[in-house]
Amino acid sequence: MSGPYRYTEPPSPKAATGTTAAVLAQAETDFGIPKPSTLIVLSSAPELLAPVWALLRESLIAGSGSRTDRELVAAGASLANRCPFCVDAHAVLLHATGDHALGEAVARAETPADERAARILEWGRASRVPGSPDLAPLPFPRDHLASHLGTALAFHFINRIVSSLLTENLLPAGAQRLQAVRSLAGRGVSRVVRAAHRPGASLAFLDSPDPGPSWAAGTSVGPAYESLRTAATTGAGLLDDADLALVQETVAHWDGAHPPTGWEALPDRRERPGARLALLAALAPYRITDEDVAAWRVPPFTDHCLVHLIAYGAFAAVDRIESALPLTALLETT
C-alpha cells in the first residue's frame, strides 16, 4: 500500500475482517474520515488497533464537554510533540467545529485570541511534561477531566505512532498547508464532528478491560486507556533484558524535554538497534531514520513486530506522563 506509510505496508482496508473491519467501519462513521491512515497503520498489529480507536473515540469524539475544547487539547499535545501531521489534522477539525479562527491559529502555531481557548491549548501543551504544575488549575470544568486528559494521553501516543510510521502529509502533496484546503476539508466533515456520539460504543471491541485509572473512574475512557496499556506494553517482549532496562530507566528520568542533537544516552544502531528504536519512539519519534529501522528489522521481525516495538516506546512515554500526574491538584479542581 502506498500513500503516507513509512516502513510498513498495512493490509488493505478492503480486505479487513472481524474486529478490524468493525473498528474501521465505526471510525468512518464516527470520525468522519474514510480509511484514516492513523488507524490503518496499526492494522499490521490488529490487537493494537481496537484499544487505540477506543481511547480516541471515547475521549476526543464522545467525551464530555465541548468538541472544540478537546480539539484544542489534542492540538496542544501535538504541537508539544512536534507532530505536524496531527497539528494539521486538528486545525482541519477545528474548522469543522465552525471555529475557523481557532483552526488557523493552531495551523500557524499562534496563540488564540480567545483567552480561554489559549489556556486550554496551553494545557494540552503542558501535558507533555511529566508532573507539570501548569496542569492545575484546570481551564475547563472538573467533570470534563476524563475526556480531556484521555484526549491528551491518546495523542501523546498517536503523535508518536504517526511521527514514526507516517509521512508529514495529511493530504496528498501536503495540500493541507493551504488555508482554503483546511477550511474546505473541515466543512467536509463538519456534520460528523458536530454530531453527538454515544459514549461506550467502542468498548465492545475490547477484551474485558479493567475500569482504568482513578482520573477516569466511571467513564468509558478508563477501560479504553487500560486496554491500550495492556496491548502496547506487550512490545516489551521484543527487547532483551538489558535493552528493556535501558529504555525503562531512560524514560523514567525524562523531564518532557526534546532530546538534544547530541543525545549521548541514545544507543548506537549497530550495537543496540531495538533499544534505540524504542527510545526514539518514546522521546523523539520524528528522528527515526531509514537506517534505524533497517538496523533492527531483520528476520524474523515483520511489520507486526515493528508496529509493536514503536507502540511500546510510545506508551512508555505516555505511562511516564500519566504516572506523574499531579492527581491531588487535578481532582480537587472545581
Characterization of the model:
Helix content is 56%, strand content 0%. α3 (46-61) runs antiparallel to α11. It has 334 residues and is mostly helical. It is built from 16 helices and no strands. The longest helix has 21 residues, at 145-165. The termini are far apart.
Structural class: mainly alpha
Beta-strand content bin: under 5%
Helix fraction bin: 55-70%
State the oligomer: single chain
Our count of helices gives 16
Would you summarize the structure shown here?
With 334 residues, the chain is an all-alpha fold.
Sequence-ordered SSE layout with sheet pairings:
Elements: H1 18-31, H2 37-40, H3 46-61, H4 67-80, H5 84-97, H6 100-107, H7 115-126, H8 145-165, H9 179-188, H10 190-194, H11 221-233, H12 241-252, H13 273-283, H14 290-296, H15 303-323, H16 327-332
What are the salient characteristics of this protein?
mainly alpha; 334 residues; 16 helices
